[in-house]
Amino acid sequence: xxxxxxxxxxxxxxxxxxxxxxxxxxxxxxxxxxxxxxxxxxxxxxxxxxxxxxxxxxxxxxxxxxxxxxxxxxxxxxxxxxxxxxxxxxxxxxxxxxxxxxxxxxxxxxxxxxxxxxxxxxxxxxxxxxxxxxxxxxxxxxxxxxxxxxxxxxxxxxxxxxxxxxxxxxxxxxxxxxxxxxxxxxxxxxxxxxxxxxxxxx
Length: 202
Fold this sequence. Notes:
36% helix, six-stranded antiparallel beta sheet, 4 helices
């Protein structure tokens, strides 16, 4: 068939309109780029006439409105998914903040973490070496000076010694430092935040 008698377009609505007008569809495919490709038989050279007719018809307005609605739905869907991801992110952050704390006998106390520094009023410092969290109490072992061990090569290595008995947490007359920031005692402001979060996730 003479290629001059074949009308080609990537417009789905236009191709559908021409087929509706009685023209014969020869080929319909989707290119690797994602664009549509249609070839329509046009022996009477009516394609250009039908194209102008389509542009000035209600079908064209319908197609434009359909595209607009699709964009709105897709954009709203993306926006809602994005907002949900933001919400989930902050909820998880708030939950993780909440789980740094525990309630024991109606008191909110901050949970210990290995590596926390406990500084007493007299200036003495100890390091949290082990933590066991139970439903009604917290067991903590602090550092108790240094000792020396011999490695496989016979070299002497300095190590931290741990107290044998678990200690009270949080320690009285002290402050707790984590990552260079004092996290205990808890300020009234932070305690109020904990109480609010507890009500949310109770």
